[in-house]
Structures are given as structure tokens and as C-alpha cells.
Design goal:
Layout (H helix, E strand, L loop, with lengths): L2 H8 L16 H25 L19 H28 L5 H29 L2 H19 L3 H29 L5 H30 L1 H19 L10
Length: about 250
């Protein structure tokens, strides 16, 4: 039987249809399918090899300064973002220990509110940051962090839920505001370094928040630890809102 007649027998409705199960076990079928598979793999190898000879533009302007921006230039937005991350990291780490009066369902609801609040305000604040600049949203985010920390210091389930929601919303605003601020402060050639510093502030804040606030709570208690954190945020807010804390190109 020729390959064409065998193919028509196995694939009666065309090459894309399912094979006839009565003929699928015949040796000739395996031979035809093997040839088809080999031909397809050959085409794949040829296509993959062709990509190696395609022109690729890997040129880079070596005259540009690709160093990190000076810390003095990006300190305010980086520290502001770290404050929001510290609060979120601390709340996620020690929330059940800090609020034994809250039920497990309330703890889970608080974590949900924090994440949802951050996602919403990060999106909602972007237009405000783009139209009017990052200074006021940064100050509002830091002030909200201080208020959220005070709420988390209170031995109340309702206050805990309010603090978790407010901390998430503040963190979302700070993410949008600080990424715009830190990129506008750095020189265009230092944008990659500025982005790296933003990510360092984000991740370091999350880690430091859980570690530092928990360590402080072991000595002075959870309520005092959250109040001390709120005082730190209030201090950073004052620096962020200073007139000379505006955008400075490096």
C-alpha cells in the first residue's frame, strides 16, 4: 500500500482529523507518522537555527553614565517607600501575635483588605501623581502609614481591620508616588540604577519591618512598637513635605 493510500485510510477526513482506530496499530501507520514527525522536527530545527543569523542590535552608548544616582538625590522617595514596606512587613509578620483578641477569620480578612487596598490605590493614585506630581501623594501616604500604625497599636479587632486596610492603601499610594519621584530625580542615564534602588527599598523594607518591629515588640510590647513606628513615619513625613525636598536632577 502506498503512503498516500495509507494516509487516506488512516486519516479519512484529512490530515487534521483523528486517525481511524482500526488502522492505528498497523506498522505502516507508525512509519508514516514517524516520517511526518521527523519532517516537522526538521522544520523546527531549521527555524530555530535561522534565528541565530538574524540581525540583532546590541549597541550601547558607552559614553553615557550608567552609575547609580547619588543617595542624597533619591533618599526621600526611597525612604518613603521603605516606610510603607516596613509597616506592611511588620503587620503581615506579627499580626496574629499583636492581636490575640482577633479571630482567625478577622486576621485573614485584615490581610485581604491590606492587599486589596494596596492594589486599588496603586492604580487609583497614578493619575494624581502624573498630573500633579508625587510630593503630595507621598506625604499623604506617609501620614496614612502613621495613622495605620496607631490603629494597629490599639487592642481592638475593628481598629486592627481599619489599620490593615489603611496600611495597604498607604502602601499602594507610596508605590506609585515614589517610583515616579525617584525616576524624575535621577538623570536619564541613571534610570536603571534608580529603578534598582526603588526595588531595594521595597524588599528591604518588607524584611526590616518584620524583623525590627518584632524585635522591638519583644522588649516593649506590640502596642508600643507600633506607636514608635508611627512616630518614625511622622518624622519622615516632615522631611518628605519640606519645600527643599522637591525634585532635584543629578
Amino acid at each position: 500500500m502506498s503512503e498516500q493510500s495509507l494516509t487516506e485510510n488512516v486519516f479519512p477526513a484529512g490530515a487534521d482529523s483523528d486517525p481511524d482506530p482500526t488502522n492505528a496499530c498497523r506498522p505502516e501507520v507508525y512509519a508514516v507518522l514517524g516520517q511526518r514527525h521527523a519532517s516537522k522536527q526538521g522544520l523546527n530545527v531549521i527555524a530555530l537555527g535561522a534565528t541565530a543569523v538574524l540581525p540583532v542590535d546590541i549597541s550601547r552608548d558607552d559614553n553615557r553614565d550608567h552609575r547609580m544616582p547619588p543617595w542624597s538625590v533619591v533618599a526621600i522617595p526611597a525612604t518613603s517607600l521603605a516606610c510603607g514596606a516596613i509597616l506592611v512587613g511588620a503587620a503581615v509578620t506579627i499580626l496574629p501575635l499583636a492581636h490575640p483578641e482577633a479571630s482567625s477569620g478577622a486576621i485573614m480578612l485584615g490581610l485581604l483588605l491590606q492587599g486589596a487596598g494596596a492594589a486599588f490605590t496603586r492604580w487609583a493614585s497614578a493619575r494624581q501623581v502624573d498630573r500633579h506630581g508625587p510630593r503630595v501623594p507621598t506625604g499623604a501616604g506617609l501620614a496614612s502609614c502613621a495613622l495605620a500604625a496607631v490603629c494597629l497599636a490599639l487592642p481592638s479587632q475593628a481598629a486592627m481591620l481599619a489599620g490593615m486596610l489603611l496600611s495597604g492603601m498607604a502602601f499602594g499610594v507610596l508605590q506609585s508616588a515614589t517610583v515616579a519621584d525617584i525616576l524624575s530625580r535621577a538623570a536619564p542615564s541613571q534610570a536603571d540604577g534608580a529603578g534598582a534602588l526603588w526595588n531595594v527599598a521595597y524588599d528591604a523594607g518588607l524584611g526590616v519591618g518584620g524583623l525590627a518591629v518584632a524585635a522591638l515588640a519583644t522588649s516593649v510590647g506590640f502596642s508600643v512598637a507600633f506607636v514608635a513606628t508611627a512616630a518614625l513615619f511622622a518624622l519622615v513625613t516632615l522631611f518628605a513635605l519640606k519645600p527643599d525636598g522637591g525634585i532635584a536632577q543629578c
